[in-house]
Design a protein that fits this description.
By secondary structure, the protein is α/β, with parallel strands linked by helices. Helices cover about 40% and strands about 15% of the residues. It has nine helices and seven strands. It has helices at about 5-15, 20-25, 30-45, 50-60, 65-80, 85-95, 160-175, 205-215, 230-245, and strands spanning about 120-130, 135-145, 150-155, 180-185, 190-195, 200, 215-220. A five-stranded mixed β-sheet has the order 3-2-1-4-7, sandwiched between helices. Strands 5-6 form a two-stranded antiparallel ribbon. Helix 1 crosses helix 2 and helix 3 (about 30-45) crosses helix 6 (about 85-95).
């Protein structure tokens, strides 16, 4: 501000939300110090969870965690908490600023939003794998419905077969109360044998299923995760939001 830059320039240079810049821009030095003091008093509500929070990050190799995942975990374990998610966020920033919590750096990618599809138009599906801290290997089936982002998740202990996939899809349709107009998949070997000059050759059992169910198919190109970004995010959500702060020793 003293350098003569306006709010828009500051937001762009620092990568901050314009509303945040506007709030601080209008403060005097005295007002800012008073605001910071009140903020510190609020964040210290979570000081009783300090060791628990530090342990969560320690067990996750000090990776950057989704703050909602940490909040959900603490709420699930202790019930009603002493502050909201934003207060927890402030406390974790406080731990970082004081050097008590140091995070490892990761790579980040930025994407633009695309226009949402009609409700019920598409169901995107994908698979994932996760090893819990107790060395339980989980195979993840995930589905997300447009445009509601309604999610369905299921786990199993063995690699997926075509029949496993069909069972999960039937359960998913029961769960969401209907079928999508179109199913979005990648070229996984339990669904697709090969692509021949743009023609998709499906596995025998999967072809019988989609014909019986009269499902339209959209098959993503190979090595193109952006074409099914919604379901990629759901897989990340399952791993980073749900599984990363919990431990399971068996499927039940």
């Amino acid at each position: 501000k003293k350098a003569g830059k306006n709010k828009k320039q500051i937001a762009q240079e620092l990568g901050l939300d314009p509303a945040t810049v506007k709030k601080y821009y209008s403060m005097s030095d005295v007002q800012y110090l008073s605001y910071r003091q009140k903020l510190l008093e609020r964040t210290k509500r979570y000081s009783c969870f300090k060791n628990e929070i530090l342990e969560i990050y320690y067990l996750n190799d000090h990776k950057v965690l989704n703050m909602a995942a940490v909040y959900d975990y603490l709420e699930e374990k202790y019930g009603s908490l002493c502050g909201n998610e934003q207060t927890l966020r402030n406390y974790i920033h406080y731990l970082k600023n004081t050097g008590e919590l140091k995070l490892s750096k990761g790579d980040f990618r930025l994407f633009r939003k695309v226009e949402p599809l009609a409700y019920g138009k598409q169901l995107q599906i994908d698979f994932g794998e996760y090893l819990t801290k107790s060395n339980l290997k989980l195979y993840i089936f995930a589905a997300v419905l447009s445009a509601s982002r309604y999610k369905y998740i299921s786990f199993q202990e063995n690699p997926f077969t075509t029949l496993d996939l069909i069972d999960h899809l039937n359960d998913c349709f029961d769960y969401i109360g209907g079928m999508p107009e179109e199913l979005v998949i990648d070229q996984d070997s339990i669904m697709v044998v090969s692509e021949n000059a743009g023609d998709i050759i499906y596995t025998e059992k999967f072809l019988s299923f989609i014909e019986e169910m009269e499902l339209k198919m959209f098959v993503c190109r190979k090595a193109d995760p952006q074409s099914k970004g919604k379901i990629e995010n759901v897989i990340k959500y399952v791993k980073n939001n749900f599984l990363t702060v919990r431990d399971f020793s068996n499927l039940e």
